[in-house]
Every structure is written in C-alpha cells, then in structure tokens.
Request: fold
Amino acid sequence: MGMSDYDIVIAGGGHNALACGAMLSLHGLKVLVAERNAWVGGGAVTAEIARPGFKHDLFGASHVWCHVNPDFRNILRPELEKNYGLKYLWAEDEITGHPFPEGPGIVIYKSVDKTCDSIAQYSARDARRYREIFDDFDQIKDGFIKTFFSPPNPPSYHPAAMENNPRGLRMLRNYNLSSRAFVEENFENKWVRSAILGWSMGPHVKPDQEAMGASFYIMIPAMHIFGQSIPQGGSMELPKALRRLIEDKGGKVMTGATVKEFIVADRECKGICLEDGTEIEARRAVVTALDPKQTFLRLMNPKHLDSQFMQACENIIFDDMGICRVHFALNEAPDFKHGGDFNKVAYHRIFGSVQDIVNHVAEVDQRKLPTDPFIHALIWTKNDPTRAPAGKHTLTIDTYPPTELGNGVKWDDVKEEFGRRQLEVLRRHTTNMGDDNILDYAIHTPEDLYAHNRSFYKGAPTGGKRIIAQLGAFRPLPEYSQYKSPIKKLYMAGPSCHPGGGISAMGTITARVMLKDFGLVSDDDEDFL
Ligand SMILES: Cc1cc2nc3c(=O)[nH]c(=O)nc-3n(C[C@H](O)[C@H](O)[C@H](O)COP(=O)(O)OP(=O)(O)OC[C@H]3O[C@@H](n4cnc5c(N)ncnc54)[C@H](O)[C@@H]3O)c2cc1C
Reply:
C-alpha cells in the first residue's frame, strides 16, 4: 500500500464526513478525506446556477439540526466561527410564513408567545393546545436531544421507559399516530392543521405514515429553542470551514478523488484505493460517509462480506418522493399579499389545506406530478444580502414529486411546465412575481439531484426512507446501528445512519464512538448537553 501518513481515512467529503474529520483532528488525529467532486460539501453546496452573482444553495440550505447537535454547538461551531471564517446568520424572530387563501396566514416565530398569537387568529383553542404541546416537550427535551445525537438504543428501550406511567403511555400512543391523525386529533382549525402537518412532513415523511406523530415534536426544539440559521455566503461555507480546520490541524482534504475500493484484509479495513489507482493506508481506521449500498455492494470485494449482510444492504428502501427545485434570480423579493411579518420571513411553506396535501401525496403515490403542488419558497437574501448583487434577490421554490415518473414520462419533457406550476402557487400569494421580476432561473429535477450526488438516491434527500423499520437501532441496518460496520476498523457516518438526513453534522457521533474506542475520550466526557 501507498502513503501511510494518516491516522484516519474518510471516504466522501460531505459536511458529515468533514464534521467527523474535524472532531478527530481536534483530538490530535491526522485525517485524510477523499471526495469525488472537485469541491467539498456533498449536500451543502452553493453555486451561481441561475445567473452570475446570485448564489443558490443547491441542496441543504436551512441549518437547523446542527445547532441541536451538542458536539457541533459546543465544540465545532465556536471553533469554526472563531478561527475558520464561518459566520451564522440567525432569523431574528420570524422563522416561517404559512400563507393561506383565507385569514391573515400563520407565522411561526422563535417566540412561542408570538407563534401562539398568530395561531389564535384562526383558533384560540389551537393556540392553547400548541403551547401545551410545547410545554410537554420542554420537560423532556434534553433526553430527546441526547437520543437524537447518540448511538441508538435498542428498539424496546424507549417504549419500556415510557410504558410504566400513564403519561408516558399516552405519549407513546401519540407518537404512534400518523402525523395526519396527530394533527386532526390535536387541532380544530383547517389552516392550523395544515401548517402543523406541513412542519411534520419536514423530515420527508408522508401524512398517513404510521408512527410519525412524533415528527412534530422533533420540529419544536429546532425552531423555538435553537432557532434557524444560514451561513453567510451560502450553505457551503460550513463544509469549507470544516475543511480549513482539518487542513490547519495537519490533515488533507483531497477533491477529485473518487474512492474505487475499500481495501480489506483479514476482515479489517486497511485503507482506500482511488479511481486513479492511488492506495491510501489508514494507521488507525477508515470511515465511510457513503451510503451502504455504494460502500458494501459496489466498493468492496464481496468475498469479505456474508451474503445475509449483502442482502440486508440490498433491502434498504429509499424514498419514492424526491425534490424538484427552481432557483430564480430576482429583481426584487416576492411581496406577500398578507403583508406585515410575511415580508420579513425568508422561508415560506405554502401548503393549502390538509386535503390538498393528501391529494398531492396521492398523486406522488401514483407516480404522477402533483396537479396543485405544495411548495417551499426560500428567499435567503432577506437574511443574507451577500448572496446577490446589491438590491437583488435569490429565490428557490421546491416541492416533492415522485422520484420516478410513471407512464414513461420523461423529466426533460415536463420540467419547464412543472417549474411553472410551482411558480403559479407562489403567484397566488404575492403581488409582484410576474415574468418581469424574474431575471433568470434554473430547474433541478430529482434526476439532476441524483446526478450531482449519488447519496440523493433518485432525487430523494433522506439517505434511506424514514420508516420505523429503518430508524434508530435499525439504521442503516439491524446490528450495525452503532456506526461500526461488519468489517473491523471501518466506521460509518452520513444520512444512512441515525439520526438520518439533514445538515445535522452527525459525523460528530461517529467521531465520538471512534474516540472512545481509541481511549481518547471516556464515558465521563458525555456531559455535553
Ligand atoms: C434538495 C435538497 C434540499 C435539502 N434541504 C435541506 C435543508 O434545508 N436542511 C437540512 O438540514 N437538510 C436538507 N437536505 C438534506 C441534506 O442536504 C443532506 O442530508 C446532507 O447534506 C447529507 O450530508 P452528508 O455529508 O452526510 O452526505 P452528502 O452530503 O451526501 O455527502 C456525501 C459525499 O460523498 C461524495 N461521494 C460519493 N461517492 C463517492 C466516492 N465513491 N468517492 C468519494 N466521494 C464520494 C459525494 O460527492 C458527496 O460529497 C436537503 C437535501 C436535498 C436533496
């Protein structure tokens, strides 16, 4: 084998790989990262795709989950902000706007009080219920966050802890509802229901998927406790800052370096081999931040794996609901008919009614393009004017179409019309989104997302469908949920592992597992909350 200058070799240069590498670097380990693209970032990439001077986040944009992650919040973020050029810009109070065809619309604020006031304009009872749910959550949030950012417990661990008292049993029952059932049971007003259901679908789960009632609880800490942020200059500033940290600590981040094979001998991973034939040895361990199908089925000699494990990798289910985005360069920011705080918000969720959401998903299930899609509209230049020339704005609209279209329909034939259909939804709620406001645009279909990043399997963003059979102790595979693979010295990171997709910097969890294995941190260091 070739160079052996590195303690740790990491395959993939997404933000999770880099977060893992950065944590290890801070503990004195020498890290090498090999990334296929000519840039780092994976799902956190910023590019001038619609028109020069207008910076759009092509994939992950809203940085919420990394701030919930204790190791990112307490260790990496301060280091990156102090020494490596990262600057987070925070939504001051207004987090999302939910425009509706009736009434004043709902704004979700960081402030619970202001959010309740906004909801109360539709229903005082729903506002009270919202607060009760928040208060309930507030009592268990530390445990919840720790569960989210630690290696998963056995499947029976949480139910067993909750089933011993009536309150716990009730909560367990609520978690097992679908998000639609949860919303219909807890809220009475049709527009409030829709706003909450829209939030619950944030983790890319469908409204009637069982046991997703908890997903609203997942969203609460993110917005009201930690708030919402974007890096100044674009999402990609996070991976770029992580890269600087790793290199500053003596590590190396290679781009244009596609991993062709994980080198295994005696059931132990020794290093990686790149497409150009370069072999890189790891003194202590290798991390794969690529999905298990790629790692084990394509990049490893099958003789090192048993057939049952390979079949389990084969069986990983990806979403059938992807993302289609239109990135616009605008003359001026969209002007919302609701006015007021709506025009301060950078992130709008336009969902229609619960029935509209259900209709959308029903069409996705039939592999049809939604007739009247719900959309997200992101105007990050409201919070970060550096992303466009002075006075101009960026806008990204997206929705969830099927990953594969039925009846032989080709994306190239329909994408323009479907992009326009999304724009029409925004036009209903704004006064100035005529063609004269649009300087340029670029459309990204699920096929484009997949071509950019093989982790976005057929355009789905989750790294494996979020169904009970693929969450917690089952993610990415039963027996291998602790970030260790069946091959010795090969650790795993990325959205296929718990807690799943998102800009969560979950690579810190893998790093912590490794540091414990190396004896560089102990269980006593776990008081990181
Ligand atoms: C359209 C879209 C919008 C999203 N919006 C949000 C959002 O607003 N907020 C949020 O929290 N999350 C969002 N997400 C999800 C989020 O972007 C991802 O979950 C996250 O980026 C995953 O990060 P990662 O570092 O684990 O993996 P990835 O970013 O997928 O990184 C994997 C890396 O490995 C590289 N690679 C692949 N194969 C090889 C190989 N053989 N050799 C070397 N390198 C290889 C890839 O090029 C890539 O850089 C969104 C996703 C999509 C698709």
The chain has a mean pLDDT of 94.
